[in-house]
Amino acid sequence: MNSSRCAACKHLRRRCPSDCIFAPYFPSNNPRRFAYVHKIFGASNVGKILQDLPVSYRGEAANTLCYEAYCRIKDPVYGCAGIVDQLNEQLKIAEYQLATIKAAITTALQPSYLLDQSLPML
Amino acid sequence: MNSSRCAACKHLRRRCPSDCIFAPYFPSNNPRRFAYVHKIFGASNVGKILQDLPVSYRGEAANTLCYEAYCRIKDPVYGCAGIVDQLNEQLKIAEYQLATIKAAITTALQPSYLLDQSLPML
User: Fold this and answer.
1) C-alpha distances in angstroms, B109 versus A99, A114, B105, B115, B121?
2) Phi, psi angle pair for A102, to nearest 5°
3) pLDDT tens digit at each of 122 positions of chain B
4) Residue of chain B whose alpha carbon sits nearest to that of A110
5) A16 and which of A5, A72, B3, B35 could share a cystine (Cβ 3.0–4.6 Å)?
6) A45/B44 touch (CB, cutoff 8 Å), yes or no
């Protein structure tokens, strides 16, 4: 029945079988979700990745494939790997700040440092 | 000539044309590099992504596609998106630690706080 075809089968203009590998993860009311993964991975590769996984993992895999496909469409050069690079950079900065501040605290807590400081409020 | 085919054309068992879209980025001495992207994205999609980019960006795009394909082969459920999740989590922890330590310093530098503290080393 045409009206019950999933987004993948609608996109691929084919009948949606009762055991369709795509249907649970690509509902007909969200056609863009399948269009993204189809453009980047291809329907056959997405189907293979899902098929090779236990059913309980397929939903998460479909979500992460959509996320990656969306990233690649938005940024065809770096895709999701560009987000990894940005986050690594931010993490490096945050860890450097933490290390610097901890080192400064350690220095400030040395008795010799405290004695050398003027504490005008005392 | 067979011996000069790139990794993609060798994998696809075809002649490597002089203007092969894959050849500059998938040298014959690294067949796994193409095998990864072929398995996850498909040769046709990789070719289309590269073809749609200016030549100067294609090398980076090939590298990031290989990285994403490798991540997906290693972790078929989460792929590269799993790395993004992990990094986001680590960044959240580092930023929370930074905010906590900065708040503690601000409190410790309040004159009222300093007056309330015993400073045994003084």
Assistant:
1) 20, 14, 6, 10, 18
2) -70, -40
3) 445 899 999 999 999 999 999 999 999 999 999 999 999 999 999 999 999 999 999 999 999 999 999 999 999 999 999 999 999 999 999 999 999 998 988 888 777 776 776 555 54
4) B121
5) A5
6) no
Q: Which two tokens stand for residue B76?
A: 């078929």
d(Cα B91, Cα B12) in Å, to the nearest integer? 42
Are the C-beta atoms of residues A41 and A79 closer than 8 Å to each other?
A: no
- Residue A65 CB partners (closer than 8 Å, separation 6+): A37, A41, A46, A49, B79
**Predicted-complex ipTM score:** 0.84
The C-alpha atoms of residue B37 and residue B32 are separated, in whole angstroms, by 9
Q: Which of A61, A77, A80 sits opposite B80 (nearest CB)?
A: A80
